[in-house]
Amino acid sequence: MPSLRVTICAASVAVCGLVAPLPAIADTAAPPATLLPISSVPTTASTKGSAAVKLTGCTLGGSSGRSASFSSKMVGGSKAASMELRFDLYARPIAGGAWKPVTGVPMFGSWDRPSSSRVVWSKRVGGLSVGQSYRVLVTHRWLSKSGRVIRRVVLSSPACKQHDTRPDLAASFVGARSLTNGKTLYTLLVRNLGLSASSGFSVALAVNGVELPTARVKSLGARKSRIVTFTAAACASGSKIKAEADFSKEIVEPNELNNVVESACPVVGG
Questions:
Q1: Which one-letter DSSP state was computed for residue 258?
Q2: 3-class DSSP string for 195-208
């Protein structure tokens, strides 16, 4: 787990301080977390008190780096003399699996005691890892004058998913059509499965073991597709044809395996 940067804000005392980062921090230019207005907190406390937890920010890069912001709104009850809350950070792969605690993060995993009976307490963590989801479990407790816990509530925030934002090119065969001149028109579908547009790249096709001159795609938007065609000799029965997106390796992608597709002759669309 990478080193993380933390920001903590408490609306009740109008303080926002940046905790010193651990080594190898990822988001050195990250701004402070947004301080939620105290007006968003109910002004009337119930007998037992109340609590709510939110994911208030989830950034995937840029000047803010990869970061997540969480807040807890806590209101004291008429029977409580003081309140405490604790943020515990958890992570798991976006693909799924068990949530595991992220330890060693400053200001997480320790108790905070607000000085007000109505508070919005916010924390922000940066330097997050690509491919991971992050959430917090916030434990709230209300204490009597003697320090005895009279109520305890644990709430989970929604997850901040740190998707890989790079382009991800994939090639598939649409089919082949015989032309009147004895040649064959091969049709490919090139898709960008990623979350950002790609710059220009080349597409290659090999028929009967012979590589054809590459075709050029100037750019391809996120979640967009492009038809690319080649005219070549008919493929020999029993042979294979092979297509490859980003043949010249110009695009950095999270998955290079789906760039290449092969099909037996005759071509079956993919």
A1: G
A2: CCCECCEEEEEEEC
d(CA 75, CA 45): 6
Tell me the C-alpha distance between 172 and 86, whole Å: 50
Q: What is the pLDDT of residues 39-67, one digit of tens each?
A: 333 333 456 789 999 999 999 887 778 99
- Predicted pLDDT of residue 36: 31
**Domains, the chain, with CATH or none:** 5-161 (2.60.40), 169-264 (2.60.40.10)
Question: How many other C-beta atoms can be found within 10 angstroms of the C-beta atom of residue 16?
Answer: 16
Over residues 92-108, the pLDDT tens digits come to: 999 899 999 999 999 99
**CB-based contacts of 119, cutoff 8 Å, min separation 6:** 10, 11, 12, 41, 73, 74, 75, 83
| CB contact set of 258 (below 8 Å; sequence gap of 6+) | 168, 169, 170, 171, 193
